[in-house]
Amino acid sequence: FLSDATRQKITALRRKHRLHWPRAGTIDFGGFDRLTPVSQVFGYDRGLPIDRYYIEAFLQANTRDITGRCLELGDPGYITRFGQGVTRADVLHYVPGNPLATIVGDLTDAPHIPDNSFDCIIFTQTLQMIVDPRAALRTIHRILKPDGVALITSAGIAKIGRKLGRDDWGEYWHFTSQSLHLISAEIWGEANTTIGSYGNVMSACSFLQG
Q1: Could you tell me which residues are beta bridge partners of residue 147?
Q2: What pLDDT score does 200 carry?
Q3: Beta bridge partners of 152
């Protein structure tokens, strides 16, 4: 409700008279007063990583959509856990060698996966690992049935999980809800795109620390 000039004046006065709250210099960072994270593996060594709490809450809220023929990346764990009336569970993996995989391929270029194949695709924490996310989303759209549902999650505030030269692939993007909405609505349309975000300042800090 305030003009830019008024806001700048108030900010200048707060700095001049040290009117910040909490007072500048009084915050106790406790166990976060460190330059390396508490856990190097997102907290898997200490329990359930915080992002998985939100991911699983999201899937739990959408169990009615995890039905019919479903596709998941890596393993069918979430299909098994949250699916209702699943008739077939397929697993996609990027490279050969995964014994659970029923389909091997790159979602940015996967002509061997037929159109209109799946009622539901669970696509968690992977979009940020794909150099061309729009191409991957176009494939997901193509291989979904006309009334199918894609349940997609991706990292916002998080440490980098994959590095080229150390892992098989890198991590290229961290999305905001706005950017993910933008590229999803380009493909599905505004009416068919629903975006939500999870977390707060404390959970973001804790997730970075593991």
Answers
A1: none
A2: 95
A3: 123
